[in-house]
């Protein structure tokens, strides 16, 4: 007896939304409300092995794991989250997270991100003068040239002006819709 395998372009998250155990299980429509089937079965296929023993075959790395119902699905979730590197890679790409090897440093974007951080967290413009902040940034990416306080102030002003234009456009659209 083979379980149906849902084909999807993006891997489904197998993280629990809260609690423990099989709280993220979904109802198996073919069985009605009698029994729930774990979402791990969207990433694994049930196969019969030697002596009619049930196994779970990973759809990513093809590893055979115990598929006996008595063992539950926790070990299968752990395999997907911890051991199966192909599942992790596919999940990361589905979420739009690029691998480190594809990372391209962008000084302009980094400066804008720093300006937004200064706005959002009320960091001082002279954060570049903080010795350990500079050491920290250098450890993350030595290519980032930490701007001086006047440059950060200018970047913050530029972000402010860009956001102000967006707000005015939104207010004009709302005003036009109300009249």
UniProtKB/TrEMBL annotation:
Signal peptide from the UniProt entry: none
InterPro entries tied to this protein: Cuticle_assoc_protein (IPR053031), Znf_BED (IPR003656), Znf_C2H2_sf (IPR036236)
Domain BED-type: residue ranges: 35-91
GO annotation, biological process: regulation of transcription by RNA polymerase II
Renumbered residue ranges of the record's region Disordered: 1-38
Source superkingdom: Eukaryota
Cellular compartments per GO CC: nucleus
GO molecular function, one term: zinc ion binding
Segments of skewed composition (Polar residues): 1-17
Keywords: Metal-binding, Zinc, Zinc-finger
Protein name, as recorded: BED-type domain-containing protein
Organism: Sesamum radiatum
